Amino acid sequence: MLSVKQVLIVEDLPDVADWLHQQVVIMLDPDQVHRASNLADASRCMEQHRYDLALIDLGLPDGSGMSLVRPFKKANPAAQCIITTIFDDAEHLFGSLRAGADGYLLKDDTEEAFAGHLSGILQGRPPLSASIARRLLEHFHPLAGEKDVALTRREQDMLTLIAKGLSVKHAAEKLGISHYTAAGYMKDVYAKLQVNTRAEATLKAIHMGLVNPS
Q: Exposed/middle/buried for 117, CB within 10 Å: 0-12, 13-18, 19+?
């Protein structure tokens, strides 16, 4: 189960930031929650602290929150980086996932659904709004005549553990292999599935029947 002790919320609307803060405290019970209302403040927080979770809005006053994803993941490789936004278009969705985001939640979901996704982060459930998950599945639906993808047994083992919410490091430990070897397997998986992130790889592999996370 994921332990969330340090959280960063990047949101420029005070009432939304207040609600996210409240939900994070209720659902995840972190030790500390930092808040930033723009890119500059968020960057300063990222320089001064390490985090287990970030909730990042895309539409910020001084630019797109998408630009924070790569540096956040680089500084906090084991953390979850979740986009929380009103944008449900493919450009923002896939741009965020390619940047390394671990999830994508729509702020216009019901409060119950949104809170459920936050709670599910602890259990390793993919933090994706229902409409976003459908869009991803449609995008990755195998086209007629699409070439079959053949994964090795080890690649399937890695992808199955990743689909259950484990990091590459923890999956490697579970399989008794080095992190370097595990990363190599995932690099080959990305190439075979033609994706760039764990979230994309998981959804595409499940949809194509290559792995069964249950």
A: buried
Q: How far apart are CA 194 and CA 174, in angstroms?
A: 26
Q: What is the CATH number assigned to the segment(s) 6-139? A: 3.40.50.2300
- Residue boundaries of the structural domains of the chain: 6-139, 153-207
The upper half-sphere exposure of residue 21, i.e. CA atoms within 13 Å in the direction of its Cβ, equals: 15
Cβ contacts of residue 85 below 8 Å, gap of 6+?
A: 57, 58, 59, 65, 92, 104, 105, 106, 107
Whether the pTM exceeds 0.90: the reply is no
Q: Is the pLDDT of residue 96 over 50?
A: yes
Per DSSP, 53 falls in state: E
